[in-house]
Amino acid sequence: MNIRPLLYLGAVASAGLLSTTANATDVRVDLDFTTWTDAGALDGLAQPEELVTVPRSFTMRMLDSTNPALGSLTTVENFLKYVADGDYANSFVHRSAKTQFGIPFVIQGGGFTIEDLPPVNSVPTDPPIADDPHPNRSNVLGTVAMARSGVDTATSQWFVNLKDNSFLDPDFTVFAEVIEGMDTIDAIANLERINAGGPFNEMPLYYYDGAFAGSQFVKTNIHVVGDADLDGYVHANDFGQVASQFGTSGDLSGDLNDDTDVNLSDFGIVAYHFGSGLEPAATLAVPEPGSIALLALGALMIGPRRR
After folding, report:
1. Residues 103, 160: Cα–Cα separation, whole Å
2. Measuring CA to CA, which residue among 217, 234, 86, 78 is closest to residue 145?
């Protein structure tokens, strides 16, 4: 008898008991190093040392949109919709701004995409949202805010504050804070910058040899932590996604903790973040932990698969 499904069910149920309500939504920004780590594609160019010695991702936590002390935060839902719709696929950090004294100011992304080669395309945008500032949310070091070009014009572009920029508070809405990976953000801020004109006049690149290629850009993959099926919402389907890949290894969506193996820990991540993200309008209410366990059991009973 294969008792592993029952063992994993018990672990998932235990994790679910820690999450009777949806936790704060965490969103991870992974740097796309697919071509960068291919030495043959670099023609002998050295990797930037600061990006070799730090994690290749950072995580931002959405501020609680239901907390009256923080305001309505419609900006959170706006950002999560772009994540859920996959609009940030192949987007990149297009701006790394410094003050007149050379102090890192912000890094900015969410506006443009690129494949392996130019051209650069704009992220498809939804209608602009109203500014949503609040005195209890300030543009301090490590916070994330929406960029805009005027009153009530914010769409998809976001930026991370690299210093205390509270003077921006009246105009730029803070909606998240970085909880992990500031060393990665600092490394991006220290990359070489070029002036390619327009919105790319402070663009960070891994390297520049006089011509552009997709591997030079700081490309990002943005997803909700625990969202194994990448639909922008952590729910029962994510248990099924992990179960379908259980026991396999490699670069898989079910490997939520980057240990190159889909295992027990990945079920725990889904359980902990269950209910976070942007809930689709047609989705049922979040089940109680007991229901989570039953859903996990049903998914696990298809049996672990190996390559």
Report:
1. 14
2. 78
